[in-house]
Structure formats: C-alpha cells, structure tokens
Design brief:
The structure is a single chain. The protein has 137 residues and is α+β, with helices and mostly antiparallel strands. The chain has a four-stranded antiparallel β-sheet with strand order 2-3-1-4, with helices on one face. Strand 2 and strand 3 form a beta hairpin. The longest helix is centred in the C-terminal third of the chain and has 19 residues. The radius of gyration is 16 Å and the shape is elongated.
C-alpha cells in the first residue's frame, strides 16, 4: 500500500462509465419493469453505491477513504445501456477506483438480472472518464 501520510486532503472526484450491450427484449423488460428479478436500475444503483463504499475490501492496495458522494445514472440507447458513476471525497487520495468499481458492479448486477431473459447481454467497456483533485489538478 502506498504511503499517503504526507499528502493533504483535497476534494477528489472521479467519473467512470460502463457500457452493456443488450437485446431489444431486455430494454423493453427494463422499461416495463417486468424483469423477473425486479427493478433493474434500482437494484444496480444500490449495488453500485455499496461497491464504491467497499472498494478496499475487494481491491487489496486501495485505501479506506471517506466517501462523501456517489451518484449512479443509467441511459438506454439503441441496444446499449450506459452506466455512469460520479464519486467524491475530501481526502488524501483519489476516487477513481471507487467510481470504476461502482460502474463495474452495476454492470455485473444488470448482467445477472437480465441473463435469464437475454443470452446476448455482455459488458463491453469500463473506463475512467474524468478525475480531479490532488496533484493532477
């Protein structure tokens, strides 16, 4: 684990995204709230927030940091679901891993909820869109 004891607390933000490919049948089921496991976006949002708050428990070298804000949004495009998460903290190290873990777990949650109705759902991309705060700012 990297020593961050000499760093100063600053506002750190990160935005990450994930992209899922899904069938029109899945999109219809999500919109109609007829997915057998429940409200896909509500469940995925809670899973993403919990994931962001628990990153040090699953990624060994991540610091346990205070999370001040997590937001998760979903956008349905033709044949795709775009997940975005923004994470904020006032601390000594960034929140990129928290934002990327949030969208990753949201994508996995959606995959799990849709797999019984969509054999072609797959996660295409997970990436960091922006980060700010600390030395890079």
């Amino acid at each position: 684990m990297k020593d961050i004891s000499n760093k100063y607390n600053t506002l750190r933000t990160a935005i990450a995204s994930a992209l899922l490919s899904v069938s029109p049948k899945s999109i219809k089921a999500i919109k109609n709230k007829s997915v057998p496991k429940g409200d896909v976006f509500a469940v995925a949002k809670v899973a993403a927030i919990l994931a962001a708050k628990n990153v040090p428990q699953i990624i060994p070298y991540c610091h346990n940091i205070p999370i001040d804000f997590v937001d998760v949004n979903f956008e349905i495009k033709m044949g795709h679901i775009i997940i975005k998460s923004e994470v904020k903290s006032v601390y000594k190290t960034g929140v990129e891993m928290e934002a990327m873990t949030a969208v990753s777990v949201a994508a996995l949650t959606i995959y799990d909820m849709l797999k019984m109705i969509d054999e072609n759902v797959f996660i295409k991309e997970i990436r960091l869109l922006t980060k700010s705060g600390g030395k890079s700012d």
